[in-house]
Amino acid sequence: MTKKNNVSGVENVEVKDKEMKKDAEGKDQEKKERKKSTRKSKTARLEEEIQRLREENERLRDQLLRKIAEFDNFRKRTERDVVMRLQNATEELIVELLPVLDDFERSLNHARSDMDFEHFREGVELIYKKFKGILEKQGLKAMETINQPFDPEKHDALMQVEKEGMESGTVVEEHQKGYYLNDRVIRHAQVIVAK
User: Buried (b) or exposed (e) across 146-180, using 16+ Cβ within 10 A?
Assistant: First the structure.
C-alpha cells in the first residue's frame, strides 16, 4: 500500500502541478487578453482622438482660408477706395482751376487785340488772386521768410552776405517762396542769409 500511496501521491502532485500550470497558463492568457484588450481600447481611443484632431484641423484650415480671402477682398476694396478718393480729389481741384485757365485765355485774347498794358496787368493780377485763393482753399500757405531766423527745416540757404543792421543767421532776401500744405513743408524757401 505504501507503494500505491506513493504512486498516488506522486500522481496527485503531478495532477496538482498540471492544474497549477493550467491555472498559470490561464492567468497568463487572461493577462495577455487584458493587455490585448487594453491595447485595443487605447488604440481605439487614440484613433478617435486622431480623427477628432483631423476634423478640428480641417475646420481651422477652412476658417483660415476664409479669413485670408476676406482680408484679400478688404485690401483690394481699400486700395480701390484710395485710388477713387485720389482721383476725385484731383478732379475737384482741376474743376476749381478751370476758371483760372479760362481767365488766362481771355486775357491773352484781349492782349492780342488791345495793347493796353495797364488793363492786361490788372487782368493778370485778378487771375493770380483767384488762383492763389483756390490753392489756399486747398490748404496751401506761403512761408514768411524775410527778417526771420534761418531754419534748415524750412529754408535752403543759397548764400550768406554781409548786411549792416541784420543779425547773423537772419534771412535777408528770398529767391524762391517756400510753401506749407496743411502745415507741412512741401517746398523749402530758397533764401539769402546774413553773415
Answer: eeeebbeebbebeeeeeeeeeeeebbbebeeebbe
C-alpha cell at 17: 502541478
Q: Where are the domains of the chain?
A: 2-138, 139-195
pLDDT digits (tens, 9 = 90+) for 7-46: 555 666 676 777 777 777 767 777 777 776 677 788 889 9
CATH C-level class of 2-138: alpha beta
How far apart CA 3 and CA 179 sit, in angstroms, is: 133
Helix, strand, coil percentages in the chain from 3-state DSSP, rounded to 5? 70, 15, 15
pLDDT for position 145: 95
What order do you get walking across the sheet with 140-142 strand by strand? 140-142, 179-181, 184-187
Give the CA angle between residues 29, 33, 34 to the nearest 5°.
115
The CA distance from 108 to 122, in Å, is 13
**What is the second-level CATH architecture of the domain 139-195?**
Roll (2.30)
Each residue's pLDDT tens digit, 136-177? 998 999 999 999 999 999 999 999 999 888 899 999 999 999
3-state secondary structure of 34: helix
The structure's pTM equals 0.54
